[in-house]
């Protein structure tokens, strides 16, 4: 068997050396003008290139067979040519001027292209739809390089998140059509507020590291730019339904008018997703819609997008204590003995499932939030070489999470003690709501200019965030004479963010491209009012950042690309970094990142592979050290020096016509230099400090591996086998194995079948079986340490992920 396997592999590789041909050509306009920078794709191979300054392109090492050449260029009609390759071929492509300006102009200035010397990946709508059965976007991007995903509810619906190179969402820049998505105060992104948004996406680009300049939050791990669906010239209707484990259901309806009167088009989507979740009571009820309408002409378009998400999610934020996961009865009893849990809470933990336990039992312990987005785009092309676009946006968010609190002190809410006879009541059970009510609006713009060997992008944006935070007590067992919906705190944050950038790609010769990118960013953050701990958090902060980037990309030979890149990025502290800081302590300062990257890519008909090396040096990175403020809340502290360095490898291989393999692996070292941990001392009060010379950055696995084997059984039927391995992740920054997530190896299977009939355009059937080997693993956690009677103990919460589970769906396009 082993000999046969090696023989098949040998034959597959050696066959590549025979019957190989080249496809050369030029791309010109109807007037005979060469079109540099045109995007060329040889569809059946997945290989792509761009034309040089003379409009020329070449694909080398292509095997005999049937192919389709696709050519796109802004301001011109898309071009496709199907042909059979039996020998070397030369194609002269003539593009017709488009009667409609393409919408890719919206994201052109912030996206990386074949000439940009950064590490990036484009994910098409087709790739997203392969796995879109209701799980959030992080799970659909889990095949990407250096990505780790997590889910509070354990099954990918509800609160989910992702990390790239060990950095979480509040250090990743997210945009939709170039408009910032990160919350201006927290820098976070919550996909639960944008349910089924994937169903309205055209594509996604991920840039790892600092990346190129964009709008919004600083990119300290990656940039993720999402583009919503472009114009569909033909009327359509689409119905998608899926169902699966944990009573998960998704229903989506989409429709579009196509192009009306050669100028107008309208599209709409309505979605609902519900799930009980893997964790006890981790239910989600998610609703969303997306509508767009546009006016299109040969050189201009005007488009409006309106989309909204409305969610009610039962809280499963606390996780499962390690002692519950390990069935440690003595450890669970310690939670009561040390005053961490009440007797009732400890009893519930002991009687719950070891992997599905949820501390919350109050019926309405829910998070409730609605977010509405409005986007207006205006673009104009003066010529194929010169175009401009401007966007205006407004986001309205409002909602609360409700909590049942047992025996809270009345003084914490500014409520006077209550006299009942001769007794004084100082605490009571109550129900409270913490509200967030905000407005976010602004404008973004870009100007793009392209000649034979020069590409210039100039852009920027101005945005304002106005957020109100307040809390109400809506019920209490004993509250005295306080008014209904008594408000115990209120504060406000106003933040303006202005940025301007300029990018230049210059082709010195056709094989060498130089890149430069300069950005200036100004942030003013005003905070005023009282927080929920009765602290005055009034303060003002101003930041001015200069973020330069430069690189080179070379084409040393056919099918080969190499690049080197250096960039500087800055990130201001978020709201909680400021408000949680001790009143008399050191104010947190901005973080700075120096990112050095170099990579090489090889592309042939059957093989596409690449390597990227990176070294990310941080100054003043904000991390958790265990330090607390004057009311006992954990704070984030700047550490002088830390770094991430690693190697990312990826490959796609098609040894046989019906067999494909895609995979990637990330190997990294992530360290903090001169780290000091602080642990609460319950014996003597205060905190004890522990010094470390070098430690691992939390949640930064040294190994991440992805593999996907795809077998095309027929032209309509596909089966794939996906594997993910994530190495050990430390929960805090002390490199202690006792406070870490064990490595895990998870395998999934997917079956897909497409049916075409005379009365339907297409019907797709999908079945996903996740975690087929029932791996027990946790993908996220938190920990609190304390000293008692000279022993170190922990209170923690781990987030177990579901065992074997499934999702099945049908998508009908007509």
Summarize the structure.
The protein is built from seven helices and 43 strands. By secondary structure, the chain is mostly beta strands.
Helix content: under 10%
Which structural class matches the secondary elements? mainly beta
Compute the CA-based radius of gyration. 28 Å
Under the CATH scheme, the architecture of the largest domain is Beta Barrel
What percentage of amino acids are in beta strands? over 45%
What's the number of helices?
7
What integer is the average pLDDT?
Answer: 92
How far apart are the first and last residues' alpha carbons, in Å?
47 Å
According to CATH, the fold-level topology of the largest domain is: Maltoporin, Chain A
Name the poorly predicted regions.
1-18
Number of strands: 43
Q: Please, what is the CATH homologous superfamily of the largest domain?
A: TonB-dependent receptor, beta-barrel domain
Provide the domain count: 2
Major β-sheet annotation: 22 strands, antiparallel, barrel
Oligomeric state, counting identical vs distinct chains? single chain
Query: Class of the largest domain, according to the CATH hierarchy?
Result: Mainly Beta
| Tertiary shape | globular
Molecular structure report:
It is a single chain. The protein is mainly beta and 814 residues long. The chain has two domains: 20-98, Carboxypeptidase-like, regulatory domain (Immunoglobulin-like); 236-320 and 355-522 and 541-813, TonB-dependent receptor, beta-barrel domain (Maltoporin, Chain A, Beta Barrel). The protein is built from seven helices and 43 strands. The strands form seven sheets. It has a 22-stranded antiparallel β-barrel. The protein has a five-stranded mixed β-sheet with strand order 8-13-14-11-12. Strand 16 and strand 17 (264-275) form a beta hairpin.
């Amino acid at each position: 068997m082993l000999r046969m396997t090696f023989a098949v592999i040998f034959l597959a590789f050696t066959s590549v050396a025979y019957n190989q041909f080249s496809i050369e050509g030029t791309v010109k306009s109807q007037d005979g003008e060469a079109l540099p920078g045109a995007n060329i794709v040889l569809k059946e191979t997945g290989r792509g290139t761009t034309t040089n300054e003379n409009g020329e392109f070449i694909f080398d090492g292509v095997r005999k067979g049937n192919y389709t050449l696709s050519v796109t260029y802004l301001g011109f009609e898309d071009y496709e040519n199907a042909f059979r390759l039996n020998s070397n071929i030369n194609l002269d492509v003539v593009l017709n001027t488009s009667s409609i300006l393409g919408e890719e102009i919206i994201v052109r200035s912030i996206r990386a292209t074949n000439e940009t010397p950064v590490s990036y990946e484009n994910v098409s709508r087709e790739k997203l739809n392969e796995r879109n059965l209701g799980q959030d976007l992080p799970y659909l991007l889990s095949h990407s390089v250096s990505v780790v995903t997590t889910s509070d509810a354990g099954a990918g619906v509800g609160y989910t998140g992702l990390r790239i190179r060990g950095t979480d969402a509040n250090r990743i820049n997210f945009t939709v059509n170039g408009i910032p998505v990160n919350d201006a105060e927290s820098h976070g992104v919550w996909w639960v507020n944008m349910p089924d948004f994937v169903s309205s996406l055209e594509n996604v680009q991920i840039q790892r590291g600092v990346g190129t300049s964009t709008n919004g939050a600083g990119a300290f791990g990656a940039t993720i730019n999402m583009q919503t669906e472009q114009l569909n010239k033909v009327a359509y209707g689409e119905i998608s339904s899926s169902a699966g484990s944990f009573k998960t259901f998704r229903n989506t309806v989409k429709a579009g008018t196509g192009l009306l009167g050669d100028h107008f088009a309208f599209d709409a989507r309505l979605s609902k997703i519900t799930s009980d979740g893997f964790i006890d009571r981790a239910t989600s009820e998610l609703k969303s819609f997306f509508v767009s309408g546009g006016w299109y002409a040969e050189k201009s378009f005007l488009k409006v997008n309106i989309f909204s998400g409305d969610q009610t999610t039962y809280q499963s934020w606390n996780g499962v204590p390690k002692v519950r996961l390990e069935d440690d009865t003595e450890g669970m009893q310690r939670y009561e003995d040390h005053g961490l849990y009440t007797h009732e809470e400890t009893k519930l933990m002991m009687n719950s499932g070891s992997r599905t336990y949820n501390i919350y039992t109050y019926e309405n312990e829910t998070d409730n939030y609605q977010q509405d987005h409005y986007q207006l785009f205006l673009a104009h092309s003066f010529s194929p070489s010169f175009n401009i676009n401007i966007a205006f946006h407004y986001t309205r968010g409002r909602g609360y999470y409700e909590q049942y609190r047992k025996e809270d002190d009345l003084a914490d809410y500014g409520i006077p003690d209550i006299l009942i006879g001769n007794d004084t009541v100082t605490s009571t059970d109550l129900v409270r709501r913490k509200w967030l009510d905000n407005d976010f609006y602004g404008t973004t713009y870009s100007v793009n200019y392209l000649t034979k060997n020069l590409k210039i992008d100039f852009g920027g944006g101005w945005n304002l965030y106005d957020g109100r935070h307040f809390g109400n007590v809506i019920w209490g067992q004993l509250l005295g004479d306080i008014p209904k919906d008594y408000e115990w705190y209120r504060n406000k944050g106003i933040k303006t963010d202005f940025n301007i950038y300029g990018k230049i790609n210059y082709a010195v010769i056709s094989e060498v491209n130089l890149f430069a990118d300069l950005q200036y960013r100004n942030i003013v953050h005003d905070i005023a009012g009282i927080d929920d701990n009765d602290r005055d958090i009034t303060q003002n902060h101003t930041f001015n950042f200069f973020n330069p980037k430069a690189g080179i990309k070379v084409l040393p030979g056919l099918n080969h690309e190499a690049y080197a890149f250096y960039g500087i990025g800055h990130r201001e502290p978020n709201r909680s970094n400021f408000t949680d800081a001790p009143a008399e302590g050191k104010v947190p300062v901005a973080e700075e990142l120096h990112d050095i990257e170099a990579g090489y890519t090889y592309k042939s008909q059957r093989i596409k592979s690449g390597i990227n090396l990176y070294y990310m040096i941080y100054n003043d990175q904000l991390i958790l050290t265990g330090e607390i403020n004057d009311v006992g809340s954990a704070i984030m502290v700047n550490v002088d020096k830390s770094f991430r360095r690693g190697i990312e490898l990826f490959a796609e291989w098609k040894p046989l016509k019906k067999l494909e393999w895609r995979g990637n692996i990330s190997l990294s070292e992530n360290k903090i230099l001169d780290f000091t941990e602080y642990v609460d001392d319950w014996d003597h009060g205060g905190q004890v400090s522990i010094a470390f010379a070098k430690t691992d950055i939390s949640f930064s696995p040294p190994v991440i591996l992805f593999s996907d084997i795809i077998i095309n059984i027929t032209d309509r039927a596909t089966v794939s086998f996906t594997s993910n391995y994530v190495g050990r992740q430390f929960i805090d920054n002390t490199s202690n194995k006792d406070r870490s997530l064990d490595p895990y190896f998870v395998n999934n299977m997917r079956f897909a079948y497409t049916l075409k009939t005379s009365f339907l355009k297409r019907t797709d059937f999908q079945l996903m079986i996740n975690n087929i080997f029932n791996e027990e693993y946790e993908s996220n956690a938190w920990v609190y340490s304390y000293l008692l009677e000279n022993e170190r103990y922990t209170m923690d919460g781990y987030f177990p992920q579901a065992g074997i589970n499934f999702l099945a769906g049908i998508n009908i396009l007509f």
